[in-house]
Specification:
Helices cover about 20% and strands about 25% of the residues. It contains five helices and nine strands, in the order E-E-E-E-H-E-E-H-E-E-E-H-H-H. The C terminus is likely disordered.
């Protein structure tokens, strides 16, 4: 990994020199736009919308659209005096329980590595955070932008999670929130049963990106020049059931079946009593032959 930032964590009067590394990476398969006929890369030029001339990076400034076709142009001098936290400091503001932070605020994760002789205070802060079962709220400036973040412990390493500012989280405004929708106790009980039947411990490595794997197979096939086999189509999702309780019951049964659990056997039906055998029909006694007439 390559460090993308160097600075120091300011922990009271203690300063901990650190390097910052991206803790995650996107695994999306990326494509280039190419000319369909010859595979040539498509290139784009930066041109001015007014005079049509190609513009170099040195002549590009930042502009803020104020509406009505008007633009305010800002230069490097305009940014120089802004009250931005020093770009080389991570200031600890307070320590809070992790559950106080809504996960919707988290943005990107970074690993912190101690630099030089900072290993001892680094481990001290790490162990103290773990013992206190809290996370540190900090401020950091990355790429000329001040960001709120947290410091927490992950696999014996301090992790910095940048956060969104509260006004960057949208308020959900949906019509159904104003409707008086009630759930029946039986439905809620069955939904809880479904949750219980699907409960487990989250293990991230048990989940895979099936689409990316299939796409990589297609690319590999193209490279190797072999025939591309069309993957089997996934089963269509069942149509929405009108009967909510029936859908919940079916879901519980399917979840149990997927986990190898047998459903409770249905109560056995009472066997019908065997029919009484009919009494055997007595054969008619043949009539005695008439006595021979005496001669």
């Amino acid at each position: 990994m390559r460090a993308i930032w160097k600075g120091a964590v300011s922990f009271g009067l203690v300063s901990i020199a650190v390097k910052l590394y991206s803790a995650t990476e996107e695994k999306d398969i990326r494509f280039h736009q190419v000319h369909r006929t010859d595979g040539g890369r498509i290139k784009y030029q930066r041109t001015c919308s007014i005079d049509g001339e190609v513009v170099s990076y040195d002549d590009i400034a930042k502009g803020y659209d104020i509406g009505g076709g008007e633009m305010v142009i800002l230069t490097d001098e305009d940014f120089a005096d802004l009250p931005l936290t020093t770009s080389r400091a991570i200031d600890v503001l307070e320590f809070v329980p992790a559950e106080d932070i809504d996960p919707i605020l988290f943005a990107k994760a970074y690993y912190l590595e101690p630099e030089g002789q900072a290993a001892k205070p680094y481990v001290l802060l790490r162990d103290a955070l773990r013992d206190a079962d809290r996370v540190a709220i900090v401020k950091i400036a990355i790429r000329q932008r001040e960001q709120l973040a947290t410091l927490r412990v992950h696999e014996d390493v301090l992790v910095l999670n940048t956060m969104l500012w509260p006004d960057e989280v949208r308020t959900p405004e949906f019509g159904f929130l104003d409707e008086d929708i009630e759930t029946r106790p039986a439905e809620l009980a069955m939904a809880s049963s479904l949750i219980d039947s699907m409960a487990g411990s989250f293990k991230a490595d048990e989940f895979t990106d099936n689409y990316r794997a299939a796409l990589q197979e297609v690319i590999d096939a193209k490279v190797e020049g072999r025939e591309i086999v069309q993957p089997e189509e996934a089963e269509e999702a069942p149509a929405a059931a009108i009967d909510l309780m029936a859908a919940l019951k079916a879901s519980v049964e399917r979840a149990k079946k997927a986990r190898g659990e047998e459903s409770a056997p249905a109560p056995a039906k009472k066997k019908a009593a065997p029919a009484k055998k009919a009494a055997p029909v007595k054969k008619a006694t043949p009539a005695k032959k008439a006595a021979k007439k005496s001669a």
